[in-house]
DNA sequence: TATTAAGCGAGACGGTACGTCTTGTCTTGGA
DNA sequence: TCCAAGACAAGACGTACCGTCTCGCTTAATA
């Protein structure tokens, strides 16, 4: 994922791990006190005590830095539950995800999704790095459901994934209702429990 | 929708209809050839042959202009189908909406949603003016379904609306799959047809 | 000097004397609280409760209004002394002029002179209307001195006028020293009193 | 005269000599074809091929740039004559000064003096940098006259300086008569030659 | 151990867009 | 018929960031 610290062919000073860490820390600090759209390369550089060229050497813009900082922070915060039952796996997973968004990173995640719409260079990276991995986790949970016979062999897992993630993103972005446990329960119930209708 | 030209309390030159129209036209023209995030107040002013202060007198920024232009263009493009049957009403409505997004305004709508994430001043206006009206249309369709007995009296219409709009926005923003007729059909089938699973 | 309030030939609403007076009053009021270069046509119009086009109908810019207001205010504030003696006439006249500048209009007069440098349209009017009349007053005092034999028949009165007014303007504009009575006395003494050297 | 390029405390890209020179050249060029009050920061930036922030980094406005350009151009154009005689020294000095103003920089100098009246930030700098140095030159000439006994020990040199510079500025600003050699001669004669009256 | 070249901070650079201000003209409706 | 109110096109203002560049200092692997 990161070919940056290798090479080191001949002489010369190696790249400073310290600078990278300072940037990540500074970014997370700034996100605590200011909103995403107030972040600029200049501010991050100043806060991290790092030169702008250093920033540009390793990242091509603010959203790339923020995404990396976010993934570094949230690393393995959300696991993949395996209770042996589809409904409770999905329920668990959604609850975890909602909580993570509500309590912490929601604002920033919203901003990154927004950035991905406006910045084509970032869009691809964001989807393949950030979104895709989480979607895969859900798809794997669903696949286990198919194996167990809880879903039909020909179930459209992509559609079901959209039906789980779609409403989540919709509420996250549109803010017309909370991403709380009630919502997770209703969602799971409506989607998987025939009696829930 | 626009109470501005009514103010006209006493004296004073009234708002120039010509300038307003020039701005709307220029904005739509620019959107045809450039992407949303290349739009600037200055470019719009120049294209419309209008002074910047005139722009700022009536709109507080690019997204507000774009939203108004979009609503003016799409006025009544999407109707509210009434076939007498819930499933086909929803199907019809989603198909219409998807087509409108796919063929024309999708790019710009995505950008406005993104803007709403990054620009708090715009967020409220966007949701209350743009999103809300369309959501109401769907809710009304669902209510008719309840009246006809196609949905139970206590059905959670807000949840169902989220399950319709959520996946749409998710695909629009995340671009991992098309907003085509197949998707509309699958969605409706999964949500309302017990045999569709 | 002012052919504006006459005519009133046929029908129609007569021109408002009230508006003119309001402009003059408003201008003088504004000059009490703000500096000349903060004056704008718009601010004067607002303060006077007058439309901008009305302002432009009668004056072509801020300095023209200010000059008229100033002359209206200072009308006959400075007389032409006639003590029967050249030296005391000039001394008297300079003292009067210095006092008027120091106590009141100095700031504004400085600004008008500055404006005349930057604004060719104003330059001519300013010199012919404002400066010239005062210069003539001094020249007349000097001529009386020639008639009385206090100055030689071939005295260069223009040069002497420059020697009186020049230092005054120089100190007014350059502010390196005060325009006080001592200065008036020294000036007269150096210029007219052979023993004063 | 310019302690800016010496700062260079530690790191950082040093001030670009090229940019500085381009600005000076562009300013002098523009002054040849347009009048001072048509000069704007934007035009200078464009003509010099320099960004506006670079201009504002080093100068706080148009008059500051113009003054620097003028001083750079006129550097040591006017010397301090020393003929051994007061009258001819002053005469020489005034002739030089008049010629410089008449042939070249007069227009711009007038404008700067005007600017100093309207712009308090500029006023101080202008007087201390531009005016003061020239006044000192004249005062030194007069002091030599005192040492030689051509002027009394207690002569008021400041007054005499005002009597030389005052009429010059008066004619420069008021334009009622030329700044020619005749004027220089009359002035010197009236001020220093008892028989000249 | 000394050399040496890359990485580093700082920050100036040419640009672009911002949102505000003022100018002088115009267009209404009310008096 | 004249006016106040104020909208209009134009364009300069001074600021904030952008992404690139040029410095001189620091630092660690190579020789």
Automatic annotation (TrEMBL), chains A, B, C, D:
Is the DNA-binding keyword given for this protein?
A: yes
Task: Please verify whether the record's keywords include Disulfide bond.
Answer: no
DNA-binding region positions on the chain: 40-59
Domain named HTH tetR-type: residues = 17-77
Coiled coil stretches, renumbered: none
Question: InterPro entries annotated for this entry?
Answer: Homeodomain-like_sf, HTH-type_TetR-like_transc_reg, HTH_TetR, Tet_transcr_reg_TetR-rel_C_sf, TetR_C
The alphabetical list of record keywords is: DNA-binding, Transcription, Transcription regulation
PANTHER family membership: HTH-TYPE TRANSCRIPTIONAL REGULATOR RUTR (PTHR30055), TETR-FAMILY TRANSCRIPTIONAL REGULATOR (PTHR30055:SF148)
According to UniProt, the name of this protein is HTH tetR-type domain-containing protein
